[in-house]
Structure formats: C-alpha cells, structure tokens
Amino acid sequence: MGNIELKDEEVAHKIQQGSKDLFGLLVERYEAKMLRYARKFLFGYQDAEDVVQEVFLKVYSNIQSFDPTRGFSAWIYRVAHNEFINTIRKKGREPLSFFDPDAIFPHPVAKENIEKDLDAQQVKESLNKSLDKIDPKYREPLVLYYFEDLDYNTISEILHLPVSTVGVRLNRGKELLKKVIQGIN
Amino acid sequence: MENNQEDNSIKNKVLQAIETGKVKMKPKWEFVLQTILMIFGAIILILGLLYFFSLTIFILRQSGLWFVPSFGYKGIMPFFSSLPWLLIILVLVAIMVLEILVKHFSFVYRKPVLYSFAGIVLLVIFGSFSVANSQFHRGMFELAERDHLPFANSLYQGYGLQRLENVAEGVIRETSDLEYVIENRKGESITVIVDDDTDVNTVGQLEIGDVIVVIGQRSNGSINARGIQEIQDFPSMPKRKMMRDRLPLPPGKMK
C-alpha cells in the first residue's frame, strides 16, 4: 500500500516512528483547510500564510503528543486554534475573555444537520460579509461548522468545550449574524 | 494556480525548517512527563485541599467557633469576623487552580464547568470531614503543643490556640450568681459575665466541668456574654470534672 492511501492517523504514527519525510504529505492534506480556517477566523489580521506555517511547525514539533488511536483532524485543528488565539491575543484588537459563562451551566444539546442543511448557504454568505463584526468567541464555531464542515463533537474537541456549549455558541452566533446583516442592510 | 504556488511555498518552508533543524520534534517522554506532572500536581492539590480544609474544620471546632452559628443572628458577626480567612482563601484558590488543571483532561472539559466544580467541592467537603473526624489533626496538634512538629508547630499553635476577639470557649471552673469562670485551652481563666440580655442554651443546668462557648465583648480577662452555648460533644477539650456538684444557673437564664 502506498503512503498516499494511508489514513492521517497512520501517517502521523509513521512520522512518530521516524519517517519524517511523510510530514510533507500531512502538510499537503491540511494546507488548504488550515488556510481557509485562518483566513475566516483571523479575518483582517496578518498574513494567514505565516500563521498557518507556524501551525505546521508546531504540529511537527508536538507530533509525539498525538495519540494515533484518536482523530488526527481534531488534533491539528486544536493546534491551529491555539496558534490563532495566540495571534489574536498578541494583536490585542479583540477581547478574549478567560471567563466563559456559556461553559459553566449545562444546556440542552441543540439539533444539528437538519438546520444546517436548511440555512447553511445563507449563513455562509452572511458570515463572509461580516466576519470582522462577530466576536471571535462566536466566529470560530461558526467557521468550523459552516466552512470546515465539522460536527459538534469535533468542534467540542477542538475548542475544549462541552458539546452543549458548542450548540449554544452556534445559535448565539447566528443570532448575532442576523443582527449584523440587518444593520448592514 | 496562485493558490498552488502559495501552498507549495508553505510546504517548502515547513520542510526546509525541518531539514535544516530549525524546528525539532520534541521527544515523547517530554509529553509523558508533562502528563505525569499534571496528574501528580492534581493529586498534590487534592491532598493539600483535604489537609487545609480539614484543618479549617478542626480549628473551628477547636476554637468553639463551629458552634457560634447556633446563637442565631447574635452569632453572625462574631462568626464571620473570627473565621480563619487566610486558610479559607487558600482553599478557594487551590480549588480554582485544581479546576484549571483538570480542565486539560477530556472527561472534564467535555462537561459543563458546574459538574467538575461540584465534583471537586463535594470531594473536598466529604474528604475533609472524614479527615477532620479522624484523630489526624488532634495528633498533630498534640505534637505541636510539645514542639515536636518542626514544620507545623506555629501553624497548629497559631491557629489552634488563637485568641478570638468575640468568642471564648472553655471548661467551667467556678461559678457564682452572675458569673462563671472558665479555663480555656491555653490554661487562661476567663470570667464570663452574665446579664438579662444573655441567651443561654443548655441541655440542663451548667455545672463545673462543663464545656461552654461564649460570644460577647472581651476585655481584660472577662467577657460580657451575649450568648452561652453548652457543648455536649467536645472531645478536644480536657473536660476535667473536678467538682461533680450541679450548680444553679443565674436566675432566669435557663432555656
């Protein structure tokens, strides 16, 4: 079996065992995704390419901490999330609160997919128009859900938040988006 | 096309950084060590929490402060003004640090903070009461009294024998019409002055050898009692029954 057919987790495992050359394969597979994530989430910040390059260097440096029995995608997005948050903090243009009331109390888990199919295109278009007007706290789950096509569980794993909180943030994010779009119109 | 050039450029830069050794792969043991240290840190924090919170409970019982809320509204001010706030703040800070530490584990961050916080608080409360009800702090306190506890002598002597401004506890040694003389843990004699406004909560008549907790204003070896509470279950106090004669309470003070 050629390396090209290997799953991400298998490639990562081989890299951990010493096949450093295979890292290029992971970069190829995730470059476009990471760039899209960076361009949407870090809209209006510095060059997304620089930040994404830093993400891949962090991935390589920390790859021994990856557990090959778990999903690689969520892990690399988590590394990217940390790097992007650091970028926002360094720039200091948007407030990032340490205290998060949404994650304190349990919330009923909102339904996904059905609603997503109905208004996904509309949300994407609205989000594209007003990325810089949405708080990073809500912008990030919206980007991960609507542009990266990730489910609640994976987003919960990336953001280190309860699944129910992901649902709450998506709903609030969409409400904010509606208000912003109404304001623009 | 432009995208491809851009993507290739990122890939090339990353691979070049790896080849030239600008970025190095951290060894696995570093992450294993990190996880072990985190678990070890969490265990140490939990043990620390159990120690300090159970010590707080022990001190409250030792000083009689534990029984002060039973005086009702009269006990509220003396209770809050005499609490060992330093220990309580230390416990609260340690709970918050522990919460932040355990948030690194997926079984914690995937649930609302309320659950993990409640879990930690319940663990600390139940664990601390178990330790406080054991002989652990009593033994430590007795060692500290004999200066046999090099690292914690001052902690136990300072807190265990602290003099509270508005609260006194001790064994009744003498009694007269409107006064009791009690002996506290330090061996000091305190005159308890009783008047018509003093609330007295006792099971029966107070007698010499009974242990009481008194709230009121202290001055020069006496305390103007606003309330007196007899303590039935007070194993830490040397309840020496020197005189078994039952002595009457001052008139009109029995409840």
Give an account of the 3D structure:
- The complex is a heterodimer of chains A (185) and B (255).
- Chain A is mostly helical and 185 residues long.
- In chain A, 65% of the residues lie in helices and 0% in strands.
- Chain A folds into 2 domains: 3-91, Rna Polymerase Sigma Factor, Chain: A (Orthogonal Bundle), CATH 1.10.1740; 105-184, Arc Repressor Mutant, subunit A (Orthogonal Bundle).
- In chain A, helix 2 (23-41) packs across helix 3 (48-61), helix 5 crosses helix 6 (136-147) and helix 6 (136-147) packs across helix 8 (163-184).
- Chain A starts with 7 loop residues before the first helix and ends with a helix.
- With 255 residues, chain B is of the alpha/beta class.
- Chain B folds into 2 domains: 28-159, no CATH class; 165-230, Beta Barrel (OB fold (Dihydrolipoamide Acetyltransferase, E2P)).
- Chain B is 49% helix and 16% strand.
- Chain B has a 5-stranded mixed barrel.
- In chain B, helix 4 packs across helix 6 (113-133).
The counted number of beta strands of chain A is 0
> Outline of chain A, from the CA principal axes?
globular
Low-confidence stretches of chain A: none
User: What order do the helices and strands of chain A follow?
Assistant: HHHHHHHH
What is the helix/strand order of chain B?
HHHHHHHHEEEEEE
**Could you tell me the mean pLDDT of chain B?**
84
- Give the strand content of chain B: 15-25%
| Rg of Cα set of chain A | 17 Å
- Number of strand elements of chain B: 6
Helix coverage percent of residues of chain B?
40-55%
Helix content of chain A: 55-70%
Instruction: Please state the oligomeric state of the protein chains shown.
Output: heterodimer
Biggest sheet of chain B: strands, sense, closure?
A: 5 strands, mixed, barrel
Largest interface, with counts of residues having CB < 8 Å to the other chain, equals: A-B, 33 and 28 residues
The number of helices of chain A is 8
Tally of structural domains of chain B: 2
> What gyration radius of chain B follows from the Cα positions, in whole Å?
28 Å
Query: What's the end-to-end separation of chain B, in Å?
Result: 94 Å
Structural class determined from secondary elements of chain B: alpha/beta
Number of domains in the coordinates of chain A?
Answer: 2
